[in-house]
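Blinded run. Sample ID left blank on purpose so nobody reads anything into the name before looking at the predicted structure. Input follows.
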Amino acid sequence: MLPALAWPGNASAAAAKPLLVGGLPVTCNLTLPVACVARATSNAAAKGAGPQFEFEFSKYNGWPEIKESLMAGRIQAAYMLAPLVMDLADKRVPVKIVSLGHRSGAVIMVRTDSPYQRFKDLAGKRVAIPSRFAVDFLFLRKMLTREGMTPKDVQIVEMAPPDMPAALYAKAVDAYCTGEPFGAAAQHAGYGRVLRMTRDEWRNYICCVLTVREELIAENRPLVQDLVNHVLGAGQWLDQKQDNRNKAVAIAAGRKYFNQDPNIIRFVMENPVDRVTYGDLRMIRAEFEELMQLSVEAGTIKAPVAYEKYMDESFAKAARAAAIAL
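Blinded prediction complete.
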C-alpha cells in the first residue's frame, strides 16, 4: 500500500500525485474505474494545460480492510458502505459522504439445484453477508421480515464477497447476499440462481457511497469537487446506452481495476439491464435516514447519528457532471 499523501492547498501542486480512491471489485463501484480512466483521458487531451487532477483506483477485497486504510489515512477517499460511514463519523473518525456511487445491485443467491424458493425454506441454513454494516444485510433483514422471520432464524456468517461463489459451490453456505458481480459469477457458471434482487424489491436501494476524509475537503476542495463531477458524469454515461456499458466492462475487467472475467461483468450489465443503475446519484436525506433507522433496528448502529455529522452535500449541490469521452 502506498503511504498517505500530503495534500497542499494549491490545486495544481496537489495534482502532482494521483489521489488514491479505495474500492472493491464490485459493479456497485463501477463509476470509479470509469471516472479514473475518463480523467486520465482528458488530462492526456489537455497536454498539460491547466490543473490536471488524477485519480487512482486502489483495490481491496473486503470492507474491514478498506475501513482500516481510510481510518489510518493510508487512503483519503474510498467507496464505502453507507452505514459504516455513519458509524465511523459517530466515533469521531473525520470522514464525510460526498456522493452516491450507484443504485440497486445486490442479490441473494442460492444453489440452482437447491429447493429454496422462499426465505422460510432457509430456516436454520447458513447465509453469508459481506458485513453486518453492509446494506446487503439490511436487504436480507427486509426479506426475512416479510415472511415473519428474523436473522436469528438463519445462521449469518460474514465473508468477503469474492469468496462467496466458491463457498456456495462447495456447499459451505446455503445462500449469500452481496453486490454484483459475485451473484452473477455463480449464475453465469450455472450453479447459482437468484432468490431475490434489489431491483425488484427495493428500488431506491443505495449501498456504496463516495467517502472522503475531512482533511482532504479542508485542504483541496477543487480536487474533491472534480472527483464528484467525474463520478456523476460516469453514472450518467453508464446509463446512456449499452455501448457505454460495454466499454466500462472492458475497463473494469482489466488488471488495474477489478481484474475479472469480462463476461461476468457484462452478464451483470445485461441480465437485466437495470440490475445495477448509475444515472440517478441524487443524495436524498430521507433515504439516508431510512438506512439509519434500519441500521439502528439491526443493532449495527447503536443510536441515530445526525445527518450533518456524516454528510457533506456541498459537492453534490455544486456538481457539474463531467463529460466522459471514452
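Unblinding after everyone has recorded impressions. The two ends are 29 Å apart (CA to CA).
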